[in-house]
Amino acid sequence: MSSVLDNGSSPSEVDSLDLDEDSSPEFSIVSELIDEAIVSVCFDIHRSIKRGVYSVLEQSDEKIMKQFEVVECDGLDVFGQVPLKKQVECICPSCQRNMAANRFAPHLEKCLGMGRNSSRLASRRLATTGKLIDGDDDDDNYFDDDWTWNSDRKPGKKNKRDRGNSPRRAKAPRKNGEAGTPRPGTPSSVHSGELPATRTGLTMTAFEPLGNEEKKALLSQTCGVISEHTARMCTRSHRCPQHSDEQRQSVRLLLLGYAEVEPPVGRLRPDGSSLEPDDVIDVDSYEDGDGQALRDTLNRLSWEEESNVSTGDDNSPAAFGSVPLVKKKRKKKAKHKRRPR
Amino acid sequence: MVERIKDSQLSASINQKLVESGERERLKELLRSRLIECGWRDKLRSHCKEVIKQKGLENVTVDDLVAEITPTGRALVPDEVKRDMLLRIRTFLAANT
Predict the structure, then answer these.
(1) How far is B37 from chain A (nearest CA, A)?
(2) Where is the composition biased (Basic residues) (chain A) (predicted)?
(3) pLDDT tens profile B76-93
């Protein structure tokens, strides 16, 4: 026991030991011990070979480790693979559409009908189509419905207009006469004076109380098409892509009160904005009726807007609250009409 | 001749003493840990690996390994370790005789 503790013997004694003398019995014992250690190592290795562990533990070190070496190349990850920029895609459980993961949450919100807008859209879509619609975006559907709503109304107009082609000629002189006022003032002022613009069929309760000037301003700035779903007016600009010019015009016709009869004559110039090809046609037809082409054309150009108003009055006088006023005006116009002839 | 016999007798008696006292086992364990510490074992193993490569994994026997490795194994043992072992044996003998 003490010998173990004695290992710290003086360095001089250790140095004095001569390792080269094989003769000493102590050294033979040391070499015996060393040999035993060597043999034990050999046994270990041989055993692992025979058990099949060796190839895994030792040889695999070289072969397999090369296989799993960390690759250090530009543009490759540590496995030597090119990193893919593939976007993760999700499939909507509701409509089975495939979409990028970052678009999934917004889509799902709409598709499943969370939130105010989409729930309405979704339920309406389910109710109307009776099945899930694939392929189209929600906005598209929204737009489609708006479109159909308008196109429902359009055919009638168009038919009227087509039918109106022949009457127009007959009407033209009368129009001319009625709207004969050389400078009736700006259209807006005339309308604001006479037309209450109160229509019954539409849900524009918020819009109605406004003054005519305000309405004009509003309509001159915004698209104004009334959505079927929200019953509100589109607040985007005139170039809003969701609604067509026809829709805008028809809405203006409705809102400003001289609408429903407008289509036969021409669905244009709801706010007296500008002349369009249809005017030319009118002029032509008028020209046929009378001989004074140039003068009348010029004349017409000046008060073209008014003609629309007057025809509107003619066809649906009951629609306006102040019929007597309108009639007065018509008489006035009639006077003016005779003058150019 | 006589000296050798004497030596072998002496070493046998010493060995017996070491074994009886259990000191031999202790020394053996100490040597093992010393050799592992100084990296001798790893060197020997890598040498074994080379031998096995030459002979082929299936053809290796224990005898071959021992014969091939013993010389290098002996040479690789650091003198320090050898000296330390020798010293321990001597101090043991000095304490027990």
Answers:
(1) 14
(2) 155-174, 326-341
(3) 999 888 888 888 888 888
Q: How confident is the model at residue A340 (pLDDT cuts 50, 70, 90)?
A: low
Whether chain A has a CB inside 8 Å of the CB on B95: the answer is yes
Band of residue A19 on the pLDDT scale cut at 50, 70, 90: low
- The CA angle A146-A148-A154, to the nearest 5 degrees, is 110
pLDDT for B41 beyond 60: yes
- Nearest Cα neighbor of A256 from A198, A317, A312 is A198
Residue-wise pLDDT for A239-281, tens only, equals: 777 788 888 788 778 777 654 434 444 444 445 444 444 444 4
Cα A251 to chain center, whole Å?
A: 23
Could you tell me the CA-to-CA distances from A120 to A108, A116, A148, A165, A229 in Å, in that order? Answer: 14, 7, 18, 42, 9
pTM for the model stands at 0.36
Chain A contact present for B97, CB below 8 A: no
Substitution target in B87, B90, B93 with the highest count of A β-carbons within 10 Å is B87
Cβ A209 vs Cβ A328: under 8 Å: no
Can you tell me the ipTM of this complex? 0.91
The amino acid that residue A35 corresponds to is D
**A91 by DSSP, 3-state: which?**
strand
Q: Which residues face A233 on adjacent strands? A: A226
Task: Please tell me which residue, A212 or A133, carries the higher pLDDT value.
Answer: A212
In degrees and rounded to multiples of 5, residue A189 shows phi and psi of -65, -40
Compute the Cα dihedral for B30, B35, B36, B41 and give only its sign.
Answer: negative
Which tokens is A64 given?
């397999």
Chain A's closest residue to B27, CA to CA, is A33
Q: How far is B29 from chain A (nearest CA, A)?
A: 9
| Residue A95 DSSP symbol | T
pLDDT of A297 > 70? The answer is no
Interface of B with A in 10-29 (CB under 8 A): 10-11, 14-15, 18, 23-24, 26-28
How long is chain A?
341
